[in-house]
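Hey, I was hoping to borrow your eyes for a little while. A protein chain has come my way and I'm curious about its shape. Take your time with it, there's no hurry, and the full record follows here:
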Amino acid sequence: MRVVILGSGRGSNAGAILQAQQVGQLGRARVVQIYSDRADAGMLKLGPRFEVPATFLDAAPYKTKLDGAAEQHYIAAISVCAPDLIVLAGFMRVLKPAFLNAFAGKIINLHPSLLPSFPGLDGIGQAFRRGVKITGCTVHYVTAEVDGGPIIEQTPVRIEANDTLETLTTKIHAAEHALLPAVIARLSESAPR
């Protein structure tokens, strides 16, 4: 199963996926390309380390969505990779219908809350400020509704009385780093051979 990772940041989740691949824990999945919408994204440095192409793809002019010419540029570049799965690992742009239709049923996202609770930006902070006792992370299929696609799997994380936003964030990230590669591995085993 050919996997393309899209992200915007430092790449801790992309790193977890690549680490799992390196030690043979990604099932039949193989990351074939990393793309970032930010030229300075730390995740691009993962490419040489794990011997996977890592490329900046300009998504201008919009800051929060992938639309217009940039969307077509992304569709063309990703299509060349012939992906079976596109993993959004901290990709901070809303995907529009043309992109979703081009890769229908092949896009998954990792979100730092137990959806449908706390969708959108700052899921960890939302849960912490609300005072819930259990939050977590979710891997779901991507649809036109932001963080509203079918849930694949979730990992709960308990918020302890002594947790701070920083300690909770660390716990959520650890859960994400275990969940996302495990989901990819399972999806790869059920994919057509």
In short: The helical segments are 12-22, 46-50, 68-80, 97-102, 123-130, 165-190. Strands lie at 2-7, 30-36, 54-56, 65-66, 85-88, 94-95, 107-111, 134-141, 151-158.
